Amino acid sequence: MKQHNDDRLHPESTDFCMLDYDCAYLPGRKTRMYYRYIREAEPEFVTAVIRRGWRRFGNYFFHPICQGCDACKSLRIDVEAFRPTRSQKKAIKRNRETRILVQPPSLTPGHIELYNRYHAWKAEKDGWRHRDISEREYYENFVEGAHEFGYEILYIRDNRLVGVDLIDVVEDGISAIYFYHDPDYARLSLGTYSLLYQISLARQLGKRWIYLGYWVDGCQAFAYKTKFQPEELLDGFPGVEEEPEWKPFAKAELSNGELGMAN
Asked: Looking at the whole model, is its pTM more than 0.85?
Protein backbone atom coordinates (compact mmCIF):
# COMPACT_ATOMS: atom_id res chain seq x y z
CA MET A 1 0.00 0.00 0.00
CA LYS A 2 1.41 3.39 -1.00
CA GLN A 3 0.78 6.57 0.96
CA HIS A 4 1.34 10.01 -0.57
CA ASN A 5 1.47 12.91 1.86
CA ASP A 6 3.85 15.86 2.09
CA ASP A 7 3.42 16.10 5.85
CA ARG A 8 6.71 15.09 7.49
CA LEU A 9 4.79 12.97 9.99
CA HIS A 10 3.09 11.04 7.17
CA PRO A 11 5.83 10.13 4.66
CA GLU A 12 5.27 8.04 1.57
CA SER A 13 5.71 4.40 2.53
CA THR A 14 5.17 0.82 1.49
CA ASP A 15 3.29 -0.94 4.29
CA PHE A 16 3.11 -4.69 4.84
CA CYS A 17 3.00 -7.49 7.43
CA MET A 18 5.12 -10.62 7.68
CA LEU A 19 3.59 -14.05 8.08
CA ASP A 20 3.54 -15.32 11.65
CA TYR A 21 6.73 -16.97 12.88
CA ASP A 22 7.94 -18.44 16.19
CA CYS A 23 8.44 -15.83 18.89
CA ALA A 24 12.06 -15.52 20.02
CA TYR A 25 11.03 -14.27 23.47
CA LEU A 26 8.08 -16.38 24.62
CA PRO A 27 8.09 -20.15 23.93
CA GLY A 28 5.00 -21.43 22.15
CA ARG A 29 3.94 -17.99 20.91
CA LYS A 30 3.82 -16.59 17.39
CA THR A 31 5.07 -13.18 16.23
CA ARG A 32 3.68 -10.92 13.53
CA MET A 33 5.32 -7.60 12.59
CA TYR A 34 3.84 -4.55 10.87
CA TYR A 35 6.37 -2.75 8.64
CA ARG A 36 6.62 0.58 6.87
CA TYR A 37 9.37 0.86 4.26
CA ILE A 38 10.37 4.53 4.02
CA ARG A 39 13.28 5.60 1.81
CA GLU A 40 13.39 9.24 2.94
CA ALA A 41 12.44 9.48 6.62
CA GLU A 42 12.59 12.95 8.15
CA PRO A 43 13.97 13.38 11.70
CA GLU A 44 10.54 14.64 12.87
CA PHE A 45 8.92 11.38 11.76
CA VAL A 46 11.64 9.23 13.32
CA THR A 47 11.28 11.05 16.64
CA ALA A 48 7.49 10.71 16.55
CA VAL A 49 7.42 6.96 15.92
CA ILE A 50 10.29 6.12 18.30
CA ARG A 51 8.36 7.96 21.05
CA ARG A 52 5.40 5.71 20.19
CA GLY A 53 7.15 2.37 20.42
CA TRP A 54 8.32 1.80 16.84
CA ARG A 55 11.79 0.48 15.96
CA ARG A 56 14.01 1.02 12.92
CA PHE A 57 16.30 -1.32 10.98
CA GLY A 58 17.56 0.25 7.76
CA ASN A 59 14.65 1.81 5.86
CA TYR A 60 12.16 -0.37 7.74
CA PHE A 61 10.10 0.98 10.65
CA PHE A 62 8.13 -1.66 12.54
CA HIS A 63 6.31 -2.83 15.64
CA PRO A 64 4.63 -6.11 16.68
CA ILE A 65 0.94 -6.78 16.01
CA CYS A 66 0.78 -10.28 17.48
CA GLN A 67 -2.69 -11.80 17.72
CA GLY A 68 -3.79 -12.29 21.29
CA CYS A 69 -0.53 -11.04 22.81
CA ASP A 70 0.66 -7.61 23.95
CA ALA A 71 3.67 -8.70 26.03
CA CYS A 72 6.13 -6.39 24.24
CA LYS A 73 6.34 -3.10 26.13
CA SER A 74 8.53 -0.14 25.19
CA LEU A 75 11.11 1.01 27.74
CA ARG A 76 13.10 4.22 28.09
CA ILE A 77 15.71 5.50 30.58
CA ASP A 78 15.35 8.89 32.25
CA VAL A 79 18.78 10.36 31.49
CA GLU A 80 18.41 13.35 33.81
CA ALA A 81 17.57 11.26 36.87
CA PHE A 82 19.81 8.23 36.20
CA ARG A 83 22.62 7.46 38.63
CA PRO A 84 24.94 4.48 38.05
CA THR A 85 24.95 1.58 40.47
CA ARG A 86 28.10 0.23 42.06
CA SER A 87 28.42 -2.56 39.47
CA GLN A 88 27.87 -0.08 36.63
CA LYS A 89 30.66 2.11 38.00
CA LYS A 90 32.90 -0.97 37.90
CA ALA A 91 32.05 -1.44 34.20
CA ILE A 92 33.14 2.15 33.56
CA LYS A 93 36.40 1.51 35.43
CA ARG A 94 37.09 -1.68 33.45
CA ASN A 95 36.83 0.32 30.23
CA ARG A 96 39.26 3.11 31.05
CA GLU A 97 41.51 1.89 28.24
CA THR A 98 38.70 1.36 25.73
CA ARG A 99 38.69 3.92 22.92
CA ILE A 100 35.39 5.17 21.50
CA LEU A 101 34.65 6.51 18.03
CA VAL A 102 31.25 7.93 17.01
CA GLN A 103 30.59 8.14 13.27
CA PRO A 104 27.96 7.42 10.58
CA PRO A 105 27.28 3.66 10.21
CA SER A 106 29.83 1.85 8.06
CA LEU A 107 30.48 -1.59 6.63
CA THR A 108 33.89 -3.27 6.76
CA PRO A 109 35.06 -6.90 6.86
CA GLY A 110 35.73 -6.30 10.55
CA HIS A 111 32.07 -5.47 11.17
CA ILE A 112 30.88 -8.65 9.47
CA GLU A 113 33.43 -10.88 11.19
CA LEU A 114 32.62 -9.45 14.63
CA TYR A 115 28.84 -9.61 14.08
CA ASN A 116 28.95 -13.26 12.98
CA ARG A 117 31.34 -14.29 15.75
CA TYR A 118 29.14 -12.65 18.39
CA HIS A 119 26.01 -14.39 17.13
CA ALA A 120 27.72 -17.78 16.85
CA TRP A 121 28.81 -17.33 20.48
CA LYS A 122 25.26 -16.40 21.57
CA ALA A 123 23.88 -19.42 19.71
CA GLU A 124 26.21 -21.72 21.63
CA LYS A 125 25.86 -19.91 24.95
CA ASP A 126 22.16 -18.97 25.00
CA GLY A 127 20.57 -21.00 22.22
CA TRP A 128 19.98 -18.10 19.82
CA ARG A 129 18.98 -18.95 16.26
CA HIS A 130 21.95 -18.06 14.07
CA ARG A 131 23.20 -17.95 10.52
CA ASP A 132 25.99 -15.76 9.23
CA ILE A 133 24.89 -12.37 7.93
CA SER A 134 25.98 -11.27 4.46
CA GLU A 135 27.43 -7.87 3.62
CA ARG A 136 24.23 -6.98 1.74
CA GLU A 137 22.01 -7.91 4.72
CA TYR A 138 24.20 -5.95 7.11
CA TYR A 139 24.13 -2.90 4.87
CA GLU A 140 20.33 -3.03 4.52
CA ASN A 141 19.81 -3.46 8.28
CA PHE A 142 22.40 -1.16 9.81
CA VAL A 143 23.86 1.26 7.26
CA GLU A 144 21.07 2.11 4.84
CA GLY A 145 18.41 4.48 6.15
CA ALA A 146 20.64 6.16 8.73
CA HIS A 147 20.46 9.55 6.95
CA GLU A 148 21.59 12.35 9.29
CA PHE A 149 20.25 10.79 12.51
CA GLY A 150 21.86 7.32 12.52
CA TYR A 151 25.29 6.64 14.01
CA GLU A 152 27.55 3.82 15.11
CA ILE A 153 29.66 3.87 18.25
CA LEU A 154 32.82 1.81 17.82
CA TYR A 155 34.60 0.36 20.87
CA ILE A 156 38.30 -0.32 20.34
CA ARG A 157 40.63 -2.19 22.68
CA ASP A 158 44.18 -3.41 22.01
CA ASN A 159 43.86 -1.87 18.54
CA ARG A 160 40.95 -4.22 17.82
CA LEU A 161 37.30 -3.51 17.11
CA VAL A 162 35.58 -5.13 20.10
CA GLY A 163 32.09 -3.61 20.01
CA VAL A 164 29.65 -1.85 17.68
CA ASP A 165 26.62 0.06 18.94
CA LEU A 166 24.03 1.28 16.40
CA ILE A 167 21.90 4.24 17.49
CA ASP A 168 19.55 6.93 16.22
CA VAL A 169 19.82 10.42 17.69
CA VAL A 170 16.27 11.81 17.77
CA GLU A 171 14.91 15.13 18.99
CA ASP A 172 14.37 14.12 22.61
CA GLY A 173 16.78 11.25 23.05
CA ILE A 174 18.81 8.35 21.69
CA SER A 175 17.22 5.20 20.30
CA ALA A 176 19.32 2.09 20.93
CA ILE A 177 19.08 -0.03 17.79
CA TYR A 178 21.53 -2.90 18.21
CA PHE A 179 24.79 -3.77 19.96
CA TYR A 180 27.23 -6.61 19.40
CA HIS A 181 30.69 -7.28 20.82
CA ASP A 182 33.72 -9.54 20.84
CA PRO A 183 33.12 -12.60 23.07
CA ASP A 184 36.82 -12.61 23.95
CA TYR A 185 36.27 -9.30 25.77
CA ALA A 186 33.17 -10.32 27.72
CA ARG A 187 35.05 -9.44 30.93
CA LEU A 188 34.69 -5.74 30.04
CA SER A 189 30.87 -5.84 30.37
CA LEU A 190 30.61 -3.96 27.07
CA GLY A 191 26.83 -4.37 26.94
CA THR A 192 26.48 -2.43 30.17
CA TYR A 193 29.20 0.04 29.25
CA SER A 194 27.62 0.81 25.86
CA LEU A 195 24.38 1.91 27.52
CA LEU A 196 26.26 3.95 30.09
CA TYR A 197 28.06 5.70 27.24
CA GLN A 198 24.73 6.35 25.50
CA ILE A 199 23.52 8.02 28.68
CA SER A 200 26.69 10.14 28.83
CA LEU A 201 26.32 11.08 25.16
CA ALA A 202 22.66 11.99 25.64
CA ARG A 203 23.62 14.34 28.48
CA GLN A 204 26.25 15.99 26.30
CA LEU A 205 23.66 16.51 23.55
CA GLY A 206 20.94 17.73 25.94
CA LYS A 207 18.67 14.72 25.32
CA ARG A 208 16.25 13.44 27.97
CA TRP A 209 15.68 9.76 27.08
CA ILE A 210 17.37 6.54 26.02
CA TYR A 211 14.83 4.46 24.08
CA LEU A 212 15.68 0.81 24.76
CA GLY A 213 13.17 -0.86 22.46
CA TYR A 214 11.08 -3.73 23.79
CA TRP A 215 10.97 -5.44 27.15
CA VAL A 216 9.05 -8.66 27.86
CA ASP A 217 8.38 -9.65 31.46
CA GLY A 218 9.95 -13.05 32.13
CA CYS A 219 12.30 -12.94 29.12
CA GLN A 220 15.84 -13.27 30.44
CA ALA A 221 17.36 -11.72 27.30
CA PHE A 222 15.70 -8.41 28.22
CA ALA A 223 16.35 -8.49 31.98
CA TYR A 224 19.40 -6.20 31.70
CA LYS A 225 17.22 -3.34 30.42
CA THR A 226 15.59 -2.85 33.82
CA LYS A 227 18.92 -2.14 35.54
CA PHE A 228 19.09 1.49 34.41
CA GLN A 229 16.59 3.16 36.72
CA PRO A 230 14.55 5.33 36.71
CA GLU A 231 12.65 4.22 33.61
CA GLU A 232 9.30 4.64 31.92
CA LEU A 233 7.10 2.08 30.18
CA LEU A 234 4.79 2.48 27.18
CA ASP A 235 1.98 0.03 26.49
CA GLY A 236 0.83 -0.17 22.86
CA PHE A 237 1.71 1.80 19.74
CA PRO A 238 -0.35 5.01 19.45
CA GLY A 239 -0.62 6.85 16.15
CA VAL A 240 1.51 9.92 15.43
CA GLU A 241 -1.49 12.18 16.12
CA GLU A 242 -1.97 10.62 19.59
CA GLU A 243 0.06 11.51 22.66
CA PRO A 244 1.95 8.46 24.01
CA GLU A 245 1.26 7.71 27.68
CA TRP A 246 4.60 6.75 29.20
CA LYS A 247 4.34 5.68 32.84
CA PRO A 248 6.96 5.32 35.60
CA PHE A 249 8.38 1.81 35.78
CA ALA A 250 10.40 0.33 38.63
CA LYS A 251 11.99 -3.00 39.48
CA ALA A 252 9.38 -3.56 42.16
CA GLU A 253 6.76 -3.95 39.43
CA LEU A 254 8.48 -6.99 37.93
CA SER A 255 6.82 -10.31 38.43
CA ASN A 256 9.86 -12.55 37.91
CA GLY A 257 11.94 -11.26 40.79
CA GLU A 258 15.61 -11.93 40.09
CA LEU A 259 17.27 -9.98 37.30
CA GLY A 260 20.19 -11.01 35.11
CA MET A 261 22.44 -9.34 32.57
CA ALA A 262 22.44 -10.35 28.92
CA ASN A 263 25.29 -8.60 27.15
From this structure: yes
